[in-house]
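Quick start: read one record
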Amino acid sequence: MLSRSFLKAGHTPTLLSAFLYFDLSFMVWVLLGPLGVAISKSFGLDAAQKGLMVAIPVLSGAVLRLVAGVLVDHIGPKKTGIIGQLIVMAGLIAAWRLGLHSYHQVLALGVILGVAGASFAVALPLASRWYPPEHQGLALGIAGAGNSGTALAALFAPGLAQWVGWNNVIGLAALPLAVAFVVYVLFAKDAPNPPAPKRLAEYMSVLKTPDAWWLMLLYSVTFGGFVGLSSSLTIYFNAEYGLPAVTAGFFTAACVFAGSFVRPVGGALADRFGGVRTLTVVYVLAALGLALASFRAPSVWMALAVIMFSMSALGAGNGAVFQLAPQRFRKEIGVVTGLVGMTGGIGGFYLASSLGWAKQMTGSYQIGLLAFAGMALLALGCLTTVKTRWRKTWGAEAQAAGVTLRL
């Protein structure tokens, strides 16, 4: 998968630095999910409150991705990433030193953790700008595999919370971020010949292009499903199957790893067979998996297998969408990454909060999971509608520029 031409085409230290920064940023972005069982015991939270608690960082990250996308095009991805990392580390240390004494203070921390979620709009352009179109899927898949950071939170946070208390886990999370920060500062480099900065009105002009909205919709399902489940699964396994928080965290980590490490595979498949073909298969599999997951499995192991299957499909879809985005919007990749990433986060906020609402109102997560399976089918229908036009218009533009596309 890592061909000689790929290794020669870009800048490997930047790609790996982008991955590490993205990975550990995602670790803290979803931190409230793995800590959710412990936090809910401290404040006596109901299912809807737990759903909102894990959804707030996702929503905050969604909005801030647009801000980060604009900053990337104005001051470059490296400086934007440095600013974001400093804000997150300061927020974690402040929350640890001062303590969190109410549910509303936890929600306020969730807003700050959204800055870590905005790392998506930094890491992907940082990597993307070094690579030609034929390697975009794999490069962005590797950088985007930083989604696996959500698994690190699920693996370690619940156990550490039992050992040192959940508030101290928040402070400890700043330590690996500091390591990633040093690596990022030393090894990451902005690509030469970046696009010229544009006025804000020019950024917003991207929204006049229908293709931007289609990509936003497609990603709201693939990434929204991935991050929404990543944030909610520890609470889900605890509530549905009575697993202790630590065991629920291990199960969550397995699901997240499945989705994260299939992302580069999805990008590579999109490079080879086309992003449209890859996404078509992805949405069918994701809808099937989510629909099956909505019917409570008789054993936790069956539930784990079904959710891992669903997360793998969604992870592959994340890589495939970002094989398409730079082919259509290479000059505006910073703001497009922000816009597409924003809607991905909004999809995650919807799923996480709706799961909590469904559990609170009906005693089951089924309605929330079925609704998101329906969204996957909607995305499939939309993709089927636009794919013929994309192949004609994008292909003509690429041919005029002397570039070969795989759609």
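The mean pLDDT is 86.
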